Amino acid sequence: MRCFRFGFTAIVALHLQINAVTALSLNDDPITTCTSYEIGNKNFPGRGTEIEDDGTCTVTVPENPSTANRKLESILNEDIAKLEEFFKSKMEVKLKNLPTSATYKPSPWAGSNWPVYQDGINHKWNKDQPSPAEKYATAFNLNVKAFMDNVSALNGVDSRSSRSVCTSDKECFDPDVDTVCGMRDGASSGYCIPTWHGICHAWAAAAIFEREPNCPVTFNGITFQPMDIKALVTTVYDDSNISTVFTGARYNGYNDSIDEDAGTEVWNQPVVGFKVYEQTAMTLEKAAQTFYGLPDYPWNNASKSIVYTKSRLSWINETYTDGGLVASGLNENFTVGADYDYLLELDENEEIIGGSHEPQISGLRIIKLQHLVLENLQSR
């Protein structure tokens, strides 16, 4: 599951899952519902790790999740209502009035999700220098060992102490999830940790809302490189109580014909923008024959026409490359994207009343945030 964030005055996160059944409605997805949608909460559905099973999350599965028949959701469903309440405005549903491209400027900056198996911000991304955590503790006259132990216990190797103990990657082989033996610096053993575990949910938010660090900063004789500063800013976002409006799904249940990969992986990237490359109108019969090999369109009786749409979403990937990447233009090296196909169902007024999409978009999140200021991390 890959999550994206796009900055307007808020952040939008799209949870994407590729599904085996075409024409799949969001309302047909099994979902995980939790009591908290704050980004710093361990049960936050957009979190870049497995969410904790402490009884505060509920999995809801459709009555027959393997059925090939469905009626697409109305555009005025509960999730749309949530968004309209947040923005205090009705959502635009007339296709011809919708934008066909948008770009967020300045671009979100490339950074790291500070993987758990590398011990989070204890990781020496520059082998010739101390880690961001060690630099911070030294600069602020903290107990370096205690501070780094705390970092590891929160988002590093020691936070996975309940997992299998290991001394090599081969002991951690998992055919379903890339898993390695994560060890702290200088240790001879560690724990089997999936490589996707990290704080990408925090990096993606910080990369949009905070200006990119461009230059080294020296404090109390300790020089923080831009990548060190990114690590500290990202950590602040991870521990924040920023509230969100969460729509859609995070499903951690069983695999089925609707969701062949109902696994736990959640990746977060900050979105740069999107562009619509094609919008082709067609009759219901033409759509049924072209995409389903059927004589009649079986999904939504209220549909009067179909518009096939192809668009591309662009986002920023992870890197440990140091420096002001946006200002230097190097950020382009970490800008990637993917194409998405839609069948939009229109009524007699050419308003969107439903549709299907591939790959599957399983969720969307709005973060209620104006600005977050980097503070002293001593309390951590």
From TrEMBL:
Signal peptide: which range, if any?
Answer: 1-23
Q: Which GO terms describe its molecular function?
A: aminoacyltransferase activity
Q: Which UniProt keywords apply?
A: Signal
Q: Which InterPro entries match?
A: TGase_elicitor
Q: Domain of life, per the record? A: Eukaryota
* Protein name (Swiss-Prot/TrEMBL): Transglutaminase elicitor
Query: What species is this protein from?
Result: Phytophthora nicotianae P1569
> What does the organism's lineage look like at the top?
Eukaryota, Sar, Stramenopiles, Oomycota, Peronosporomycetes
